[in-house]
């Protein structure tokens, strides 16, 4: 049964090959000084930076540069972004990049006018913002996180060995996001497949909980099928616009709150992956792929009906003459085959994790209760060992 819920998503999307033109429609709505947020330079190599600077200038904006946002943005970088915004009286934050730039922009947006340390307030205490929030816009260059249409912001504190996400409300979501699948074509293959697995796992996190006849789960299955099909095409031919556009659109819908409506959600793969990420600084999607199979094999008996449905509906496993356990296990094997085909990491050791990190990663893993089994710390350790 669908529970009670509200659904509202304020982010306006512009999708397609000509979508950057709409920046001209959006920019006049915001103040004069724009903090241009980008990463390590991919936007300069592929020409997007020049195009955006040109549009900003034509719209009479003063541009303040904020570059060097790293994958898994750090608390130190957040503090630098806040300083840049304060020193220049910035009116608007424009993130050009992947989830890291978009997440970072949101973290800056709630911190510029905040009188406290943002790490403590938002990422340790999970307080909600009570100050003026700067508006954020996003030009997305990597499909994966869904950050372009949600309130999520994940920040890493290497000193404390913590990587923590805060899901902010509507007022922090980007005012608009520009999604041009062509921009994703300059992504290295490793980043493309990490993003693809991130999308797939966002859907799994919201699917593997409850076993009602729930419209959200049917939508989730359709999205999973689209991601699987398009990923296999994109791995063969990264220039395939249809596949890249399906992947980009699926990423947005996988985590813009739609498919979690009316049901509980799991998110333990993300908790395990994020904790591993705090220790290894590995690519987000790869940390998820590394822990997924051991986790799902472990919880399968507690949610067997859903794993059977997953096997039949998503992976087309033929159930004839098989027990529920066999069908469910075949579904996970089919998922493993697909993961191998697209080339994501299947172990934490591939990402630089070592046995002596296991206890620390377990300590950094936040245990949630929305899935089929609330894990004990010992079970977390066991799953991490199996993921090594
Ligand atoms: O920094 P540049 O030079 O731009 O290079 C980036 C970066 O090295 C590169 N890249 C991006 N677009 C490119 C490109 N290279 C060539 N051509 C392009 N078009 O890709 C690398 C990774 O980028 P990043 O933004 O870090 O990737 P992603 O989009 O996966 O974002 C990861 C961050 O988002 C968080 C993750 O934890 C991680 O910190 N997440 C945010 C979520 C949310 N807001 O809801 C949910 C997710 O589960 C996730 O936790
Ligand atoms: Zn994710």
Number of helices: 15
The count of DSSP E runs of length 2 or more, i.e. the number of strands, is 8
Q: What is the mean predicted local confidence, pLDDT?
A: 97
Hetero groups: 5,6-dihydroxy-NADP, zinc ion
Structural category is alpha/beta
From the alpha carbons, calculate the radius of gyration and give it in angstroms.
20 Å
How do the helices and strands follow one another from N- to C-terminus? EHEHHEHEHHEEEEHHHHHHHHH
Distance between the termini: 38 Å
Shape: globular
Stretches where pLDDT is under 50 for at least 5 consecutive residues are none
The biggest beta sheet reads: 6 strands, parallel
Q: Major sheet: order of its strands?
A: 1-8-5-4-2-3
Instruction: Give the fraction of residues assigned to helices.
Output: 40-55%
Strand content: 5-15%
């Amino acid at each position: 049964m669908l529970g009670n819920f509200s659904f509202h998503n304020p982010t306006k999307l512009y999708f397609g090959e000509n979508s950057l033109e709409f920046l001209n429609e959006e920019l006049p709505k915001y103040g004069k000084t724009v903090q241009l947020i980008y990463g390590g330079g991919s936007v300069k190599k592929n020409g997007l930076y020049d195009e955006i600077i040109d549009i900003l200038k034509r719209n009479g904006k003063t541009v303040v540069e904020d570059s060097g946002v790293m994958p898994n943005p750090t608390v130190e970088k957040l503090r630098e972004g806040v300083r840049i915004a304060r020193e220049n009286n910035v009116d608007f934050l424009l993130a050009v990049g992947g989830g890291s730039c978009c997440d970072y922009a949101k973290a800056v947006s709630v911190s510029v006018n905040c009188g406290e340390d943002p790490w403590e307030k938002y990422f340790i205490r999970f307080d909600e913002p009570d100050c003026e929030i700067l508006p954020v816009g996003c030009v997305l260059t990597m499909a994966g996180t869904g950050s372009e249409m949600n309130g999520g912001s994940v920040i890493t504190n290497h000193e404390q060995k913590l990587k923590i996400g805060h899901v902010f409300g509507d007022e922090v979501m980007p005012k608009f996001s520009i999604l041009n699948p062509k921009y994703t074509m300059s992504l290295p293959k490793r980043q493309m497949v990490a993003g693809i697995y991130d999308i797939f796992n966002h859907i799994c996190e919201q699917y593997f909980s409850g076993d009602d006849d729930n419209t959200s789960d049917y939508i989730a299955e359709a999205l999973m099928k689209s991601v699987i099909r398009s990923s296999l095409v994109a791995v063969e031919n990264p220039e395939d616009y249809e596949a890249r556009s399906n992947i980009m659109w699926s990423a947005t819908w996988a985590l813009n709150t739609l498919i979690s409506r009316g049901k509980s959600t799991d998110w333990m793969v993300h908790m395990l992956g994020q904790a591993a990420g705090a220790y290894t600084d590995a690519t987000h999607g790869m940390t998820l792929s590394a822990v997924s199979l051991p986790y799902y094999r472990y919880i399968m008996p507690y949610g067997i009906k859903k794993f059977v449905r997953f096997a039949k509906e998503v992976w087309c496993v033929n159930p004839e003459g098989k027990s529920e356990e066999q069908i469910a296990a075949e579904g996970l094997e089919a998922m493993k085959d697909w993961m191998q085909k697209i080339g994501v990491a299947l172990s934490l050791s591939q990402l630089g994790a070592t046995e002596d990190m296991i206890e620390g990663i377990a300590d950094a893993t936040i245990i949630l209760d929305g899935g089929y089994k609330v894990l004990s710390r010992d079970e977390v350790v066991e799953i991490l060992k199996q993921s090594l």
